[in-house]
Amino acid sequence: MRLWGAVALAALLSACSGGIVPPEAGPGRAPAPAPAREPTPAREPSRPSSLPETPVHLPARQPTPATPLAAMPASAAPTGATNAAASGVVAGPALNTLPIGQESAERALAAYRLSCSSLQRRTDSTGLTQGADWAESCRAAASWPARDARNFFVRYFETVQIGDGKAFATGYYEPEIHGCRERRPGCEVPIYGVPSDLIDVDLGLFSDDLKGKKIRGRVEGRNFVPYFDRTAIEEGRLQGRAPVIAYANDPVEIFFLQVQGSGRLRLPDGGVMRIGYAGQNGRDYTGIGKLMRDRGLLGPGQASMQGIMAYLREHPEEGRAIMRENKSFVFFKELTGPGPLGAMGLPVTGWTSAAVDPKFVPLGAPAFLSMDRTDATGLWVAQDTGGAIKGANRFDTFWGAGDDARAIAGGMSARGTAWLLLPKGVLARLTAAPAP
Q1: Burial tier of 199 (Cβ tally within 10 Å: 0-12, 13-18, 19+)
Q2: 38-49: average pLDDT
């Protein structure tokens, strides 16, 4: 999937994967309800797509504060609710009363149209919808004119609130860094493909209690052992074990590209090489931003990706040691189609696609976020997942590529209210009293 979605994202989270790979994601990151947050560890890969990218029009970098709409009255979600249906579902406001802008509606309609095939085919683990629920709106979306996009959503959808509706949104983007296909002076940091001796083990094959759990490692003699960590890899242990698909000129940029899990290499001839997540070494993910804050290394205003990167560059020896405390290491592959791709195997769109927990938001479904900053407010389409994007009303918003996207994603920490858009009639079925 993820792009493994949020760099320039304030103070890196302290999440870790515990060495076990979740079924829906790669090395997980734990969400932190702090104003600043760290980059998102890379998302698992999706299959290539030949669909075109949607142009992204980026606004000014400085966010404009906003007052979120109030959530609907709701009972507290049951402790330990495992999906949206179990968290409690109540009706949200009428769609025609929400401040949905024309550009937001057009982008969301285009993204929803791409999602339709998967929406009708997937098993929805939220407990909210069935594939057939989406059929009517998907048929209409195929030919619905962009100029009337807002009315499309008003015509076919109703809003529902999951639990208390209190939303938290962070951001991720597609990095672009300088690189080259062959090693040359000033371009000597290797970008590795998947090692030939990296093995995934499905623990569910050995015990029903471990279904859905995986570990990664390698064989050493007659033992299965953890794979090499970041330090060992940077010291050359992958020689003869993994292909080098490209090189870069800045180890700090490569570190953060691994956190994102997908990006672009700007080549010396002006061309672009797209690379995406191909695998991970199975080691725990350690958020270096929290680590640096805890050690007093980041002062006021430095708890952002930009501040973290500046410190690492100004203190190269200490910076290398700090980065090596994150033992997780991501492997890449070249992407030949459009990208980046999300968990649905479709291109994600800046200012429209979001990563969610698929147990609480159907993948492919639209959602309306009313947040405390205007850039995060609007329609989003759930087209991606993330290892640390967990629980109800948690969104990781995608902002595209380039400097503006990097700055916006890096500072994105928004709070407010979320309403899912579900096909009309679904809420009545969910809330209908059971037959006596």
Answers
A1: middle
A2: 41
pTM: 0.75
pLDDT band at 336; cut points 50, 70, 90: confident
Return phi, psi of residue 142, to 5°.
-60, -30
Whether omega for the bond prior to residue 300 falls within 30 degrees of 0, making it cis, is: no
- Mean pLDDT for the chain? 85
Per DSSP (E only), the strands in 4-82 are 20-21
Say if CB 81 and CB 138 are below 8 A apart. Answer: no
Burial class (CB in 10 A: 0-12, 13-18, 19+), 148: middle
C-alpha distances in Å from residue 326, one per residue of 188, 284, 288: 21, 7, 7
If you search the block for the tokens 């501040």, which residue do you land on? 307
Q: Are 98 and 159 in contact (CB under 8 A)?
A: yes
Which residues face 274 on adjacent strands? 264, 335
Using an 8 Å Cβ cutoff, are 38 and 29 in contact? yes
Amino acid found at 75: S
Assess whether pLDDT exceeds 60 at residue 24: no
DSSP category for residue 193: -
pLDDT digits over 72-131, tens only? 998 777 888 999 999 999 999 999 999 999 999 999 999 999 999 999 999 999 999 999
For 51-64, what is the mean pLDDT?
Answer: 45
Hey, what are 337's tokens? Answer: 């189609």
- Helix axes of 305-314 and 403-411: crossing angle, nearest 10 degrees: 100
Q: At what angle do helices 305-314 and 251-260 cross, to 10 degrees?
A: 150
* Model pLDDT, residue 16: 31
Q: Which residues contact 309 (CB under 8 A, 6 or more apart)?
A: 252, 253, 256
Residue 99 structure tokens? 């401040």
Quote the pLDDT of residue 387: 72
| Token pair belonging to 427 | 């809420």
DSSP H stretches of helix in 23-174:
84-87, 102-121, 135-141, 149-156
Nearest to 89 by CA among 436, 344, 422, 435: 422
Predicted local distance difference test score (pLDDT) of residue 434: 62
Whether the Cβ atoms of residue 164 and residue 76 lie closer than 8 Å to each other:
yes
